[in-house]
Amino acid sequence: SKKYIATPTRTNEILNKYQFFFKKSLGQNFLVDVNILGNIIREAGIDKQAGVIEIGPGIGALTEQLAIHANNVIAFEIDQRLLPILEDTLDGYDNINLIHQDILEADVHAAIKANFQPEQAIHIVANLPYYITTPILMKLLREKLPIVSITVMIQQEVAARMAAEPNSKSYGSLSIAVQYYTNAKVVMHVPKGVFMPKPNVDSSVLKLTIKDTPPVDVLDEEYFFTLVRAAFAQRRKTLKNNLTNYFKGTFVKEDINMILDSIGVDGARRGESLTMTEFAKLANAFFLRQE
Ligand code: SAM
């Protein structure tokens, strides 16, 4: 039987055959360990009925395993050089649709309509290019896609920030942004040795389970996210100081104190101690008092 793509031997053969050189600027670190891929697919909750969207198939290491375990897969790859290689390495699988496109430019809603059945559970699974992890994930979340989960290999430190709870050093506006849309959990840490070439940062697998409805009621989402970012602008400063700075020209100190009092939040606290519920109250209170 033929060897999987996700092995050092097979990967080297493919790289040599096509004289492929890695582009660091595209975050190309390919997985060469089938066990890790099996774990990712199990954590993602993929079954034979599932529809899967992959971002950045590379030479097809993860794509192949997804094709084996799911009903069908669509994969967005930005690097034109990889398209003919993927045609070759994934020859023999008839349930994969390769799309040559920058995921940040892609109409994912349309791709879902065109490739999946309405009754299929759809999951996103990827070993992401680390240089654009946050833009990719925030695009996918903001677009409110009809998906069940997103399971991704990303930089360990970014995974920790996305899954962080209040009062921890990783907690910040990114935690709130991600957890507004999902339940976020770091499901495993991954050693550098399973990649070719080895990345110079540590990696984790993050699972995001999409929430049916937002966990808090906010009057204006953009206003809420902007205010959260303002509260963390200078981490060591108090909430009151960060807000005073942010609202210069809109609200004076006395207004800010009054609004904080009205919702029962102590301005001497730091942003990192506020829960999402408290941030929602805060944003709604300021939103209502704008002119
Ligand atoms: N999935 C493969 C694996 O696990 O071996 C490759 C993962 S590699 C970390 C990231 C992949 O994303 C590369 O193939 C890269 O060319 C691709 N990529 C980078 N930027 C992209 C973008 N904006 N849209 C789609 N793919 C992109």
UniProtKB/TrEMBL annotation:
Compartments, record wording: Cytoplasm
Catalysed reaction equations from the record: adenosine(1518)/adenosine(1519) in 16S rRNA + 4 S-adenosyl-L-methionine = N(6)-dimethyladenosine(1518)/N(6)-dimethyladenosine(1519) in 16S rRNA + 4 S-adenosyl-L-homocysteine + 4 H(+)
UniProt-listed NCBIfam families: ksgA (TIGR00755)
EC number: 2.1.1.182
CDD domains on file: AdoMet_MTases
SUPFAM superfamilies membership: S-adenosyl-L-methionine-dependent methyltransferases
Protein's recorded name: Ribosomal RNA small subunit methyltransferase A
Lineage: Bacteria, Bacillati, Bacillota, Bacilli, Bacillales
Purpose: Specifically dimethylates two adjacent adenosines (A1518 and A1519) in the loop of a conserved hairpin near the 3'-end of 16S rRNA in the 30S particle. May play a critical role in biogenesis of 30S subunits.
Keyword Zinc-finger (UniProt): no
Enzyme class: transferase
List of residues binding S-adenosyl-L-methionine: N29, L31, G56, E77, D102, N127
Organism per entry: Lentibacillus populi
